[in-house]
Specification:
alpha+beta; five-stranded antiparallel sheet; HIT family, subunit A; catalytic activity; 4 helices; 159 residues
Length: 159
């Protein structure tokens, strides 16, 4: 169900309508999308299918599956974009709908080691960091192929 004034719900509706160019994959609890800006190449979001404002408001089974799937998406991002370290963030101060920010990190990607948010927002969200349609298509394809492998390995390990 879409909530008025919710940017995440709007993005999910775009996925359902087939108009979100950043969409990578649908999992049982959420949607995988490439981030609009790519200062940190491979920056990906995992958008919860349920509109909740807090992780602990989600039903237990759904929450556990959501967390598990988020970890698989992060593994795929790590592999697909050759991260040295992953940063996982569930914030919600701007967009309250539960969603994960998954940042692949590399040595020297910021002038001072620390969270991505220490970087000047004008730099991080510069239009120069938006992928071209060709770059976006390549990123989506690479992540989707890697995610497919990670999901298959996870399913095999569960058996």
């Amino acid at each position: 169900m879409m909530h008025d004034n919710c940017e995440i719900c709007r993005r999910i509706q775009m996925i359902k309508d087939g108009t979100n160019p950043y969409f990578v994959a649908e999992l049982s609890t959420g949607y995988v999308v490439i981030g609009d800006n790519q200062h940190f190449k491979g920056y990906t979001l995992f958008l919860c299918k349920q509109h909740e404002t807090e992780l602990h408001f989600l039903p237990r089974d759904f929450k556990e599956q959501f967390l598990h799937e988020m970890s698989l998406v992060a593994e795929a991002v790590y592999d697909a974009f050759h991260a040295e370290k992953m940063n996982y963030e569930l914030l919600g101060n701007g967009d309250t709908h539960v969603h994960w920010h998954l940042f692949p990190r590399r040595e020297g990607d910021t002038t001072t080691p620390g969270p991505v948010w220490w970087l000047d927002r004008n730099v991080m969200f510069s239009d120069d960091n938006r992928p071209s349609p060709e770059e976006l298509d390549e990123m989506r394809h690479t992540l989707k192929a890697t995610l497919t492998k990670v999901l298959a390995a996870d399913a095999e390990a569960a058996n």
